[in-house]
Write a structure and sequence with these properties.
Length: about 400
């Protein structure tokens, strides 16, 4: 059934032609059975054919078919061809022109012609003389109603289509603006991440330089200490190389920093300090660590800190009064798990749909970018029973 409906929508002229053939058949039967030879049956048949053409081509050339229908109506009035079945095409073309998004003169002409059709017909072919004037007026009004109704329905359909087209255009424009806003936020967040990772790499290089100087100083007197320093250099260098690989393809913008101004970025150990700071601001936070804490790559530690920081910020912004939160850090053999939950009202739906672009802030976009750069996964959304949940898994080795 749906295929048939789609086929009919793709071939509107074919549908109109079918109904035109039906109208022509009834018109010719009417002419053959009703018109006597003295009443121009040939002319009536020709009018029936042309009115059928009006129906067949009403959507291809509505204005031209309206003019043809008006000409046929005038022809009937002049030559005294009594209205018959083919005149139904007038209602069809009036509806079509009113519904068509074309020139307004055509719609106005269809309305005026429809309102005058019944009156002109009554004047040309009056009712019986025995009928009262009130009966004649009532009959004329009744015959005018279908023409007026056809125009009103068509104009309403045109207005409805224009309204929906405007809504679709507005929705499309808002969607494009939202995408552009999200892209700008992603670019800004990547630039900020690039600056932070640059600081991490610089810190690691500084550590390597210090360890190398120490190893050179104790090389002769304490070979074991020098060996440990070289191992530290090796580990730190690998971490720095991993961070530099993540920087590829990211355009770094921002202030140039002088050597010696680099400060180590926040790490996992400072999350507890962050929680205490948030508690001091009035938010109840339960903090726990599971597993065996151990040193992690600098990028992973920075990402974990920023996720907890942003999650607690969202809790304070969207959780409502008397909200409580919990922070869990879980050390696995191959990664670090984070779980931040609250029992508040939860963030608006726009905060976690489509990457977290809500038009007011882009915290979740930043989280996803950070987690993606270290090869991890992030899940954010409403918590069963109320509140909001953010969980992340950060692997110790970055995805290649």
């Amino acid at each position: 059934m749906q295929r048939l409906y789609d086929f009919l929508r793709r071939h509107p002229t074919g549908v109109d032609t079918f109904w035109a053939v039906v109208l022509l058949g009834f018109s010719l039967l009417w002419v053959g059975s009703t018109y006597p030879a003295a009443d121009h049956p040939v002319a009536a048949g020709a009018v029936g054919v042309l009115f059928s053409l009006v129906v067949a081509l009403r959507r291809r050339a509505p204005e031209k078919m309206l003019l043809l229908a008006v000409a046929l109506g005038v022809f009937q009035l002049v030559f005294g061809l009594v209205p018959f079945v083919a005149d139904f095409a007038m209602l069809v073309i009036i509806f079509t022109v009113a519904a068509h998004d074309g020139p307004r003169w055509a719609s106005r002409l269809a309305l005026v012609g429809g309102l005058c059709a019944a009156t002109l017909s009554q004047l040309r072919w009056p009712m019986e003389e025995t009928d009262s004037g009130a009966a004649k007026i009532f009959f004329t009004v009744i015959m005018t109603v279908p023409f007026a109704l056809a125009w009103v329905l068509g104009d309403s359909l045109r207005t409805r289509r224009a309204y929906f087209a405007q809504l679709e255009e507005r929705a499309s424009r808002l969607e494009k603006e939202r995408e552009a806003q999200a892209k700008v936020a992603v670019a800004a967040e990547r630039a900020r991440i690039a600056r932070e990772l640059h600081d991490v790499v610089a810190h690691n290089v500084s550590v390597m330089v210090v360890q190398a100087d120490g190893a050179a100083y104790v090389m002769d007197s304490s070979p074991e200490t020098a060996k440990q320093a070289l191992e530290t250099i090796s580990t730190t260098g690998r971490q720095a190389l991993a961070e530099m690989r993540r920087l590829l393809g990211i355009l770094r913008t921002g202030e140039h920093q002088e050597a010696g101004e680099y400060v180590p970025q926040p790490d996992v150990q400072q999350i507890e300090d962050l929680v205490e700071q948030v508690r001091g601001a009035g938010l109840t936070v339960d903090f726990a660590i599971e597993g065996s804490p151990r040193p992690l790559p600098s990028g992973v530690e920075l990402t974990a800190y920023r996720i907890v920081q942003e999650a607690l910020t969202n809790t304070r912004k969207h959780g409502g009064p008397d909200v409580g939160a919990s922070v869990r850090l879980v050390y696995f053999d191959d990664g670090l798990g984070l779980l931040v939950e609250d029992d508040g009202r939860g963030a608006p739906q726009e905060m976690y749909e489509d990457g977290g672009a809500d038009g007011r802030g882009h915290g979740l976009i930043g989280m996803r970018e950070r987690v993606g750069m270290v090869g991890g996964t992030l899940d954010a959304g409403p918590r069963p029973g109320g509140g909001f949940r953010i969980s992340a898994l950060l692997p110790l080795k970055s995805a290649h």
